[in-house]
Hints:
The protein is of the alpha/beta class and 409 residues long.
Amino acid sequence: MSEYHAPSRRALLAGGALAATTAGVSAFSPAHAEQANKTEEFMTRAPEWVKNTQKRLDEFNKRLQYLTYTDTAREYTAHNLAKNGLHVNVLDYCVDPTGGVDCTDQLNKLAERLYWLGGGSIELPAGIYKVSHPFIHLLDKVEFFGHGMSTRIIATSTDALTKAAGTSDECFGVFHTGTYQNPTSNATDNRPMRFGVRDMWIRTSPQKGHINVQQLTDNMHTRAPLAHVAGIILHTEFTGKPNDPEAVPSLSNLEIWDVDMGVAILGLHDRGMKVDKIRVRKSLRQGLLVGKPVGHPLRRKDGNNPGGADNKFLTVDISDANLSGKNYAGIEIYASQCKFFGSTSWYNRRSVLQNSIYVTRKKDQSDDQYTAKTGAGWYVAGTRNLFQGCTAQENGGHGWFALMPRNNY
Length: 409
């Protein structure tokens, strides 16, 4: 196992304290602090692949081949499956936690391997992880989780993103099933189901292939959110006749900054969800979109079914939406039978004159063209939804704009 493991931080700290005590100084004394600066005495030298991108990928591929359920592999797997189950710590698979190397392909390969093994969890410890188009695919029973706000996922712009988006309003999720315009392409009767993302901070960097480290350390926003990139897009639609109509994804404790859309839940089978503790700051379009709006290319094809129904949302906090200067609200709801508790939408931007938000909707007008919802806190265009303890404040448009009846406030 030694050839597959770098010493853990805990082991390094424990080793340093032991060496200092042996030398006759306190583990927390100034003498120990001075001694700790002598890295050759306390630290294990990083393997050669850390500074060499190609060798890092070679090492990743070598370790990946042992992530399987064979008796031969168990002896060599970095995270022994017989002991720890289907849990992967990305640092055991050479993923760069400093933001220096794009890790999109590695994360997708790990997720795919766990998917074929029946599902599992992928842990992203505190660090900075750079990703790019096509971003991270969410697969059946595979969950990504971080260490809270100290795990930062940074989406960067690339030529591939520019080419894929073209001149359309297409949008790609940093974590996703499908895209804004198209459902996931690998769905079957009952897959993907029970997947999710939790406990991390998702951000963007508009500079191609580059991360502004000062921007991250100083907790600054980008000057302009990255177009065509959302924090999360769920567009799950099963084929055939599934025995369970609900994919039941989970989203929890996510902070999302500087995106085109914050969270979009669009699929006919993205149902039965419990979404909690979601904070979205600065988005070009909606901060939270539940269901496909009128004018979406698939809404008519799906029999006018917007998708995204039957979900529960707890403590969702949306602000600074509609930075594109168009006609978006902070939270837009086209789905039915959703429940919102203790959620708020505030400081969303209005880009039209005030009298433009007091207009009657024209026949066959798409939601994106409807100026009455511009800069609103909440735009409710679904029915049989429940809102309890939810607020709107300091919005450029209406606080609440309820287009449809039969909702409970």
